[in-house]
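Slide 14.
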Amino acid sequence: KNLLEKCQLIHIAGSLDFEKISKIMLNKNI
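Slide 15: predicted structure.
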């Protein structure tokens, strides 16, 4: 694949992980 495609996939995966982490942190705070 092109470098651009790889970067986009990594960015999408990173954002998904960030959402999961933020949700986990919120659940721990409650």
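Speaker note: The CA atoms of residues 15 and 24 lie 14 Å apart.
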